[in-house]
């Protein structure tokens, strides 16, 4: 591992905090929503209860995806993490759509006379929920970044959208207490748009990794610069790469002096591979090829041109 903590360790820490936080928020929101007569907080409690399920999905997905390759799956289980991210994006999308539809229905009803005014306890719990969810976002995001886990990062953004939803509860409860009950559904619709956008972004990224999307030109240029910096490389022949699960696979070739021995060529290939893995930690696999080039003046000129390109 090239990370300070293993994926297994991070997963255990994240899952424990995630589960504890969501169970706590579910209980306290249900209690506050019932006692303080807040429909918004009761809806938020149901949302928190669904988060317990999403945490379990994340845990199982990351746990399975980090299993070692075997005879049946020689390339490992890494893509299962992208599948997990897709499932979580669907959970997010469903939650956002539900919040948005509920808000639209309340506005279309257009009758605020029958809406009750929630108590101050509901407002306090909603503010507490915002603080806890935002804290959970940064906690999970930090670990997700440290091990480059797509599923953990998706779960982190899930916490951020939950914090936004709780802000909607705060606005709605506060608005109702100030005499503007329709602020609740209006805020819910705006927040739902952000939740849906996040869900679609997570979905698109996960699908791109499953279908092995090619690396971008900026990364390809960085790889070329690393290869050409190695002593003995005359020019870059080709660079191809693809995103797969939470890592990158690279196929690259370069020109060397045709008068080099096999041992010298092998040493340069190993040096290129080592530099790529060291300077771009997300690369998990390198296929390196060396092609002979006669060290004539014309070939040196061609090599220089390739370096400049």
UniProtKB/TrEMBL annotation:
Membrane-crossing residue ranges in chain numbering: 45-62, 83-108, 120-141, 162-180, 186-204
Membrane topology listed for this record: Multi-pass membrane protein
Lineage top rank: taxon: Bacteria
Keywords: Membrane, Transmembrane, Transmembrane helix, Transport
Record's subcellular location: Membrane
Pfam entry (one): ZT_dimer
Domain Cation efflux protein transmembrane: 19-209
Domain Cation efflux protein cytoplasmic: 216-288
Family recorded in the similarity comment: Belongs to the cation diffusion facilitator (CDF) transporter (TC 2.A.4) family.
Entry protein name: Cation diffusion facilitator family transporter
Taxonomic source organism: Ohessyouella blattaphilus
């Amino acid at each position: 591992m090239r990370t300070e903590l293993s994926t297994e360790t991070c997963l255990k820490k994240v899952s424990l905090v995630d589960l504890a936080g969501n169970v706590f928020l579910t209980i306290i929101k249900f209690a506050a929503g019932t006692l303080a007569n807040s429909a918004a907080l009761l809806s938020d409690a149901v949302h928190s209860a669904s988060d317990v399920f999403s945490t379990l999905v994340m845990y199982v997905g990351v746990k399975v995806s980090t299993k070692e390759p075997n005879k049946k799956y020689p390339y490992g289980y890494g893509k299962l993490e992208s599948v997990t991210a897709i499932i979580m994006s669907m959970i997010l999308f469903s939650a956002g759509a539900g919040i948005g539809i509920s808000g639209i229905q309340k506005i279309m009803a257009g009758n605020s006379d029958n809406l009750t005014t929630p108590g101050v306890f509901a407002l306090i719990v909603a503010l507490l929920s915002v603080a806890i969810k935002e804290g959970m976002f940064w906690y999970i995001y930090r670990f997700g970044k440290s091990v480059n886990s797509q599923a953990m990062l998706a779960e982190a953004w899930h916490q951020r959208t939950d914090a936004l939803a709780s802000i909607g509860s705060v606005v709605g409860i506060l608005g109702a207490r100030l005499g503007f009950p329709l602020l609740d559904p209006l805020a819910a619709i705006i927040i739902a748009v952000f939740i849906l956008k996040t869900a679609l972004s997570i979905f698109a990224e996960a699908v791109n990794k499953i279908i092995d999307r090619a690396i971008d030109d900026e990364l390809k240029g960085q790889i070329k610069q690393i290869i050409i910096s190695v002593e003995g490389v005359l020019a870059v022949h080709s660079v191809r790469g693809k995103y797969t699960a939470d890592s990158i696979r690279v196929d690259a070739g370069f020109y060397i002096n045709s008068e080099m021995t096999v041992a010298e060529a092998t040493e340069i290939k190993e040096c290129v591979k080592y530099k790529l893995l060291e300077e771009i930690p997300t690369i998990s696999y390198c296929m390196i090829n060396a092609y002979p080039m006669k060290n004539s003046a014309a070939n040196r000129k061609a090599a220089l041109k390739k370096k400049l390109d």
